[in-house]
Specification:
GO terms for molecular function: transmembrane transporter activity. The protein is mainly alpha-helical and 510 residues long. It has helices at 12-20, 29-63, 73-96, 98-117, 122-150, 155-185, 188-209, 214-219, 226-245, 256-278, 295-323, 328-334, 336-352, 358-378, 385-414, 420-448, 454-479, 491-499. The protein has two domains: 12-17 and 26-210 and 284-509, Up-down Bundle (Growth Hormone, Chain: A), CATH 1.20.1250; 226-283. 76% of the residues lie in helices and 0% in strands. The longest helix is centred in the N-terminal third of the chain and has 35 residues, at 29-63.
Length: 510
């Protein structure tokens, strides 16, 4: 690919051409397709393992005799492990490159998936689910980093990232479908064995088609921030654990160990923030990433919106099962509109992101989030699928697909190549921390409203979801502005331009 040193003058037409052409790292169409397949499989498998477990939850509780207080960990263990380690893996990616970390994560996912499938007790399954979370913690940010580094800003990057986003929807539906089939006709173990087969396919492709970047990354001399390493893992783990487990503790928030763990977690995260901002020279999460215009309010909005998504996915399934009498396969059928709509929206988005204002698209996404929560909040007992659940699924796919693609493109384009691992970690840390924290809050709402009947208790949870969506919408309306995702200089080229190492014939392109 043409580099800044090779071109001292970059015009709008040059940028347009560069934004559409195939990166020179790929010798042809098939190597590029194999590369993209390798990366999007991580997105498919992440959603596969998160969404499918919701469908299998009641089956697992029954067959493994899971205590009521531990039920949440069958689904929360994987998110907790991902959330606690994303920043660490983000730094490791910037140190050793995406190839090493991605393939290590792929191999570990194969091993941990097999262990999940052969688990004999609920505790063993929870531990193995956490091990899966470690694998996904390596795969997700490294996949984002590899894509962000391979493609420069422009229509081709928009299309690839849209397909990547579409695969989240595909993985979500695949998890539901496979879990539904296994739960009703086979055994829950086959859910993990099928995931193992998919993981083997991903690893077989990624080992050969992902560009090797170890030598390039080592030349940068980036080192691990051991202070941030210890504080981020311990602080995030204790903080999220206390919130998630508080609903099932003997005395709720008054349980001594909940208060102690929550307090320690907050203190550790506070100490980490102070040291990272004021003391550490090479912080795990550099403050300059939040100096990118509109980055901080966007992250706050996504934290609320992604958190509401976690509530929607889990409690939507529980509601359809408990109050609408849906079987596992019916739930699969009822979520088809979300899968199909997601594929259409994501692929279509790849062709319009450079033509439509990102701010407008983000507002539409937020309205989708609000609609998905509001419809479940107002659905009456015995409510019709077509009148409430179907439009909620359509709103849900509008919400997640647009916001996910926009956020990915905005953040990876705004960060230099040396920090692409950090960019991927930040995106997924926001998502999974939001889901973990808000699911914990949803559990608290459900527990504290048990004096009502179960239906009204679920309504209160959906009210929380809707409130989070409205808050995210207000933040976007007031503080977030995103431009068209057009062909432009990369973050590294802009930095060189500012230093005088790169000139452009058309200043308006910067």
């Amino acid at each position: 690919m043409t580099t800044p040193k090779e071109h001292t003058t970059t015009s709008i037409s040059d940028l347009d051409k560069l934004g559409k052409e195939r990166p020179h790292a790929f010798s042809g169409l098939w190597p590029e397709l194999a590369f993209c397949f390798s990366i999007v499989m991580s997105q498919i498998l992440a959603e596969f393992y998160i969404s499918g477990s919701n469908v299998l939850l009641l089956t697992l509780v029954k067959e493994l005799d899971v205590p009521a207080a531990s039920t949440i960990w069958l689904t929360a263990a994987i998110s907790l492990a991902i959330t606690s380690t994303l920043l660490i893996f983000g730094r490791l990616i910037d140190m050793y490159g995406g190839y090493v970390i991605y393939n290590a994560g792929a191999i570990w996912l194969i091993i941990s998936s097999i262990l999940c499938g052969v688990s004999q007790t609920w505790l063993m399954l929870v531990v193995c689910r956490a091990l899966q979370g470690l694998a996904l913690g390596a795969l997700l940010p490294s996949g984002m980093m590899i894509l962000g580094s391979a493609y420069r800003p422009g229509p081709r990057k928009n299309l690839v990232f849209s397909i990547y986003g579409a695969c989240a929807t595909l993985g979500f539906f695949a998890g539901f479908f496979v879990a539904g089939i296994c739960g009703q006709y086979l055994t829950w173990r086959w859910y993990f064995f099928i995931g193992t087969i998919l993981s083997v396919m991903m690893a077989s492709s990624s080992l050969f088609y992902i560009p090797r970047d170890y030598a390039e990354k080592r030349e940068l001399g980036i080192r691990m921030d051991w202070c941030g390493f210890c504080l981020s893992i311990s602080g995030a783990t204790l903080f999220v654990f206390a919130i998630a487990d508080s609903s099932y503790a003997p005395q709720g928030w008054r349980t001594p160990y909940i208060l102690v763990l929550f307090t320690i977690g907050v203190i550790l995260l506070g100490v980490m923030t102070y040291l990272e901002v004021w003391v550490v020279k090479n912080p795990l999460l550099p403050g300059d990433i939040f100096r990118v215009k509109f980055m901080t309010p966007l992250i706050l909005a996504l934290f609320c919106l992604y958190g509401s998504l976690g509530i929607f996915l889990l409690y939507g399934v529980l509601y359809m099962s408990a109050f609408m009498g849906a079987t596992s396969l019916q739930i699969v059928a009822w979520t088809v509109p979300m899968a199909v709509g997601g594929l259409i929206l994501s692929v279509t988005g790849g062709f319009i992101l450079h033509k439509v204002s990102g701010t407008v698209l983000m507002i539409i996404s937020c309205l989708g989030y609000v609609g998905s929560g509001l419809l479940f909040t107002i659905i009456p007992l015995g409510g019709n699928y077509w009148a409430f659940v179907f439009p909620a699924m359509i709103c849900g796919t509008i919400a997640i697909d647009i916001s996910f693609n926009l956020a990915n493109i905005f953040i990876t384009t705004s960060v230099p190549k040396a920090k692409q691992g950090l960019a991927g970690a930040l995106i997924y840390c926001t998502m999974h921390m939001g889901i973990a924290v808000m699911l914990g809050l949803a559990d608290i709402v459900e527990t504290q409203t048990k004096w009502l009947d179960k239906w009204k208790s679920y309504k209160a949870v959906f009210g929380l979801q809707t409130g989070l969506c409205v808050l995210g919408l207000l933040i976007v309306l007031g503080f977030v502005r995103i431009r068209h995702a057009k062909s432009e200089l990369t973050a590294d080229e802009k930095e060189q331009l500012e230093r005088g190492n790169l000139t452009t014939g058309h200043p308006e392109t910067v």
